[in-house]
Amino acid sequence: MVTPTLSDGVLDSITRRTLIQLAQEELGLDVETRPVERTELYLADEIFLMGTSAEVLPAVEVDGFPIGDGKTAGEITQAIEVCYHDTVRAVTGKHDEWLTPVHLDRAPGAPSSLSPTGSSDAGSSK
């Protein structure tokens, strides 16, 4: 796996560091940090982008050139996506020290902040 150097303008993010560590430790991938030429992208077997909200997002084409089959994420991208997802959601039980529990304690019948309107069924007539 190749990732650009920080001096190439990528963000030194928690997501990036997490994915690099998981790729090495959990998937056994060698990770090389170096400048990446645009032509390398055209010839890549797989490409994925990462970010806090997007997490792992496969790239299926670059400048009109298909990556892999040009339709779906490759095997490594899929494996990294599953590994990241399961780790940050405490499915695997590995790296729980990276996680901060969030407890949503609220009174019975109280409106849920997760509902689109912020309302609940409490008090509604049926």
Give an overview in words:
- By secondary structure, the chain is an alpha+beta fold.
- The protein has one domain (2-98): D-amino Acid Aminotransferase, subunit A, domain 2 (D-amino Acid Aminotransferase, Chain A, domain 2, Alpha-Beta Barrel), CATH 3.20.10.10.
- The chain is built from 3 helices and 6 strands.
- The chain has a two-stranded parallel ribbon with strand order 1-2. A two-stranded antiparallel sheet has the order 3-4.
Tags for this entry?
126 residues, alpha+beta, D-amino Acid Aminotransferase, Chain A, domain 2, two-stranded parallel sheet, 3 helices, 6 strands, elongated
CATH class: Alpha Beta
Please summarize the sheet with the most strands.
2 strands, parallel
Strand content: 5-15%
Distance between the termini: 57 Å
Question: What fold name goes in the CATH topology slot?
Answer: D-amino Acid Aminotransferase, Chain A, domain 2
Taking pLDDT < 50 over at least 5 consecutive residues as the criterion, the unreliable ranges are: 117-126
Mean pLDDT: 87
Count of β-strands: 6
Q: What order do the SSEs take from the amino end to the carboxyl end, as H and E?
A: EHEHEEEEH
Given the helix and strand composition, which structural class is it?
alpha+beta
Summary, kept brief:
With 126 residues, the chain is an alpha+beta fold. It has helices at residues 14-25, 38-43, 75-88; strands spanning 2-3, 32-33, 47-51, 55-59, 61-62, 65-66.
Outline the secondary-structure elements:
Layout (H helix, E strand, L loop, with lengths): L1 E2 L10 H12 L6 E2 L4 H6 L3 E5 L3 E5 L1 E2 L2 E2 L8 H14 L38
Parallel strand pairs: 1-2
Antiparallel strand pairs: 3-4, 5-6
